[in-house]
Amino acid sequence: MILKNGYLVGKLVLVALIMLLVGCAQNAGREATPEAARDRVPSPEPATAEPASSEATATLAEQIATTPAQAEDTQALAEATQPPTPTAPLAPTIEPTLQEYPVPSGSRPHDVAPAPDGTVWYTGQGDGTLGLLDPETGQVTTIPLGPGSSPHGVIIGPDAAPWVTDGGQDAIVRVDPMTHEVTLYPLPPERSGANLNTATFDGDGVLWFTGQSGVYGRLDPADGVVEVFDAPGGRGPYGIATTPRGDVWYASLAGSHIATVDLDTGTATQVWPPTEAQGARRVWSDSTGRIWAAEWNAGQLGVYDPATGDWSEWRLPGDTPMAYAVYVDEQDAVWLTDFGANSIVRFDPPTETFTSFQLPDSGAKVRQLLGRPGEVWGAESGLDRLVVVRATD
Fold first, then answer.
1. What is the DSSP string of 16-78?
2. CATH code of 346's domain
3. Which of 234, 239, 298, 310 is the most exposed place for a label (fewest CB within 10 A)?
4. CA dist., res. 16 & res. 259, Å (int)
5. Residue 88 falls within a domain, yes or no?
6. In 3-state terms, what secondary structure has residue 190?
7. Based on the domain organization, do 147 and 281 belong to the same domain?
8. Is 207 helix (H, G, I), strand (E, B) or coil?
9. How far apart are CA 76 and CA 73, in angstroms?
C-alpha cells in the first residue's frame, strides 16, 4: 500500500510537471506572435523629466488605444498636456537720444549728408561753404565753394563724394572727399536764376535736381552735360528723391503737387494730393516705393502709393504744425521737422502715431533731414548747429 501510494504520488507529480511545461511553452508562443505584440500596451516615454509628470503619463498610458482614430485622439491629448514652450523675452525698448554740434557762426547750415565713413557733410548757405563735421571730436572743416556761392542741398553720390546744389553759382558742385577739390557744373547761361534746391541720383548714377524758379534737370557725371527742363505748373520744384527701383519724384512747394520724372525723356507727370494748396515741400520714398510728402501749408504728412494711386494724410500734433523736411529711415519710420513746434517728429506707419522730440532752444529751423542706420541728422539753420537723433538701447 505504501508503495502503491508512493507510486500514485509520483505519478501525480509527474503529470503536474508536464502540464506546467506545456503551459509555459504556449505562453512563450503567444508572446512571440505579432498579434500579441499589437495587443500589448507600450509604456509611453515621459513628457518631461519632472517627477510631477508621472501621474499624467500613467493616465495617458491607460487611454492609449489600438485603432488609428483612437491613436490620433491620444496623441492630441498627449500634446495638450505638454508644458508650454517658453517664449523669448521682448527686445528692449529703444529710447532715442538727441545731440547737437555747433558749426561756425553765420554759416546757416541748410542741408546735411551723413557719409558712410561716419563724418557728416553740410552746406553753409550763409558763408558759401561746404562743411565737414567729425562727430567723434566735434571738429569742423570748411571748404569755400567759390565767389557768390549760396549752397542749398548736399547728398553723397555713388562715388562717395558730396554733391551740392548751389543757387548762388547756378551750378552743381562736386567736392572731392579726400583732396577737397571743388568742381563746378554750371547750368546753361539762359537758365541762370534757377534757385537750385535739392538733388538725387537715379539708379543709373545720373544726378537730378530741382529749382524753385520752375525748373528741374539732370547731370550725367560721365559727360558733365547739364540739361534743364521746364516744370509743369511753373514755379515750385523743391524736394526730390529716388525710390528703391530708381524712379525719381519731386515735390512742388508753390504748385502743391508731387511729380514723377520719365528718366528717358525727362518729362514730368504731376500727381495731386487730396488737400488743395497743401504746399508739398519735400518728398522721400520708403522701401516699398511709396512717396511720403511734407505738406508745409497744411501742417500734414501725406503718402502716395504709385502702385494703387491711393493717398493718405495725417495732421501733425500741436496747434500750428508746419511740416518742412521728411525722411524715411531704414526701418520705414517717417521723420519730419515741425517749424511750428520747433521739434523733430517721428511717425510710425503701422500704428499711425507721432512721437515728438523737442529741440532744446527755440528758433532751430531744421530744414532738412537725412540719415544712416540708427541716426537721423538735421541742420539747425537758425542756430548754427547740426543735430542728430540716435537710437540707443
1. HHHHHHHHHHHHHHHHHSHHHHHHS-PPPPPSSSSGGGHHHHHHHHHH--SSHHHHHHHHHHH
2. 2.130.10.10
3. 310
4. 107
5. no
6. helix
7. yes
8. strand
9. 5
Between 42-51, 173-182, 291-300, the lowest mean confidence (pLDDT) is in: 42-51
Does residue 58 sit in the same domain as residue 103? no
The predicted-structure confidence for 20-54, as pLDDT tens digits, reads as follows 443 444 444 444 333 333 333 333 333 333 333 33
Neighbours of 39 (CB within 10 A): 10
Look up residue 145 and give its DSSP letter. -
Which domain does 243 fall in, by range?
Answer: 95-392
Cell of residue 320, nine digits: 500750428
In the numeric block, which cell numbers belong to residue 246? 530708381
pTM, two decimal places: 0.76
Q: The C-alpha cell of 206 is what?
A: 545720373
Residues 153 and 227 in one domain: yes
- C-alpha distance from residue 124 to each of 127, 145, 391 (Å): 6, 10, 27
Helix (H, G, I), strand (E, B) or coil at 79: helix
The three cell numbers locating residue 231: 516744370
pLDDT value at position 29?
A: 40
Total residue count of the chain as it appears in this document: 393
Q: Does any domain span residue 259?
A: yes
Taking CA atoms, 121 is separated from 150, 156, 160, 169, 374, in Å, by 15, 9, 11, 19, 17
Quick check: is 325 in a domain?
Answer: yes
Task: Note whether 256 and 385 are same-domain residues.
Answer: yes
Asked if 214 and 236 count as a contact pair (C-beta separation under 8 A), the reply is yes
Residue 246: inside a domain, yes or no? yes
> Which element (helix H / strand E) includes 9?
helix 2-32
pLDDT at site 391: 83
Confidence bin at 96 (pLDDT 50/70/90): confident
| Cα 376 from Cα 329, distance rounded (Å) | 8
Question: What is the grid cell recorded at 7?
Answer: 507510486
Separation CA 102–CA 324 (nearest Å) = 22
Domain count along the chain: 2
Q: CA dist 64 to 33, 61, 155, 202, Å?
A: 21, 5, 71, 67
Residue 219 and residue 185 in contact, taking contact as beta carbons nearer than 8 Å: yes
Separation between Cα atoms, residue 106 and residue 64, nearest integer Å: 85
